[in-house]
Task: inverse folding
């Protein structure tokens, strides 16, 4: 991978990598570390992508893997409350409320919902990224939506 190709890929996908990492790790500093690790891996091993979609998928999968490794590490610090994490800006207040509700869900529902609705991955792609069967992803999406509905009605 040339320096120009890397710069283009980093400019295009670094925000996506950071958002996935922040969603998984819930700490801005850890998300920055994970994003940096993923970008370093891209620089070191970034050869032979079969197009933009393949590169995007590789980066998303790499981010999920790096986050899992960091979460398993004994050095991984405790999570901070979401109030201390920066929140993306939304055009409507309802979108911010919904995003905060998604972030309050347990991880097994939060990450599939985030990847599906906020990053635009298909069910099969989410399953591939998380190492789950598509039927499991569909179940977690449905249960996550039900939990969201219950939370928002309260």
Result:
């Amino acid at each position: 991978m040339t320096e120009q190709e890397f710069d283009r890929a980093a400019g295009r996908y670094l925000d996506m990598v950071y958002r996935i990492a922040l969603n998984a790790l819930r700490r801005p500093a850890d998300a920055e570390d994970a994003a940096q690790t993923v970008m370093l891996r891209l620089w070191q091993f970034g050869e032979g992508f079969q197009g933009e979609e393949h590169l995007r998928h590789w980066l998303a999968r790499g981010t999920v893997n790096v986050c899992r490794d960091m979460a398993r590490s004994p050095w991984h610090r405790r999570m901070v409350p979401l109030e201390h994490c920066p929140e993306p800006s939304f055009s409507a207040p309802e979108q911010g409320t919904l995003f905060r509700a998604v972030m309050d869900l347990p991880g097994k529902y939060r990450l599939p919902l985030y990847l599906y609705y906020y990053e635009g991955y298909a069910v099969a792609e989410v399953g591939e990224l998380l190492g789950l069967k598509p039927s499991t992803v569909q179940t977690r999406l449905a249960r996550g939506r039900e939990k969201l509905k219950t939370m928002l009605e309260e």
